[in-house]
Specification:
8 helices, 210 residues, mainly alpha
Amino acid sequence: MGQLFSLESPISHVLARIVDIFILNLVFIISCLPIITIGASTTALYSVLMKMIKNEEKSIVKSFFISFKANFFKSTIIWMITVLIGAIILLDFLFLGHLSGLIRFLFTGMAIIFGFVFLCVTAFIFPYTARYEDTIKKSILNSLLIGTSNVPSLLAILLMNSIFVFIILSSNLGFLSGLYFVTFGGFALLAYLNALIISKVFSKYEVFNR
């Protein structure tokens, strides 16, 4: 029994990880409250999680704010670009309802292509910014290339996040359940699952570049 609950036991590691996820989620939510800081907060979240996956994290809160400060300017610009382009693509899809015939077919195809490009970038851009030092232009381009070159991983990330969004929007109970979930670790847990996939994708390029 003593060995079961020792600091080195598997159960202790799992419990410690749960506590880490809860603390990280709380710090992330607080850091996102100004809204404009969501980009920097997301980058910092992934920075800590990818270190956590490699067992390289030392102090979760300290590591979070170091990354938050270091990537604030770049992540904020990326966040604003993401919101702007996302809004434009959403308006494009809404506008399709007013078209018909060949014009609607052509614009639907364009909207789907741009939507796919947008999803490729948004799935990887903040983890990429957390992991690598690069210009905004190169970060966006490389995130796009990574997304289009790793479609199965991209689809796994999109499916996982889409299920969560669907549950929240499905009903009042789903919304309340989702609100409870994200409040008590959901954001960090979902990002952790994303980071597990993304870290494997990144590792392929890191091995290639060695």
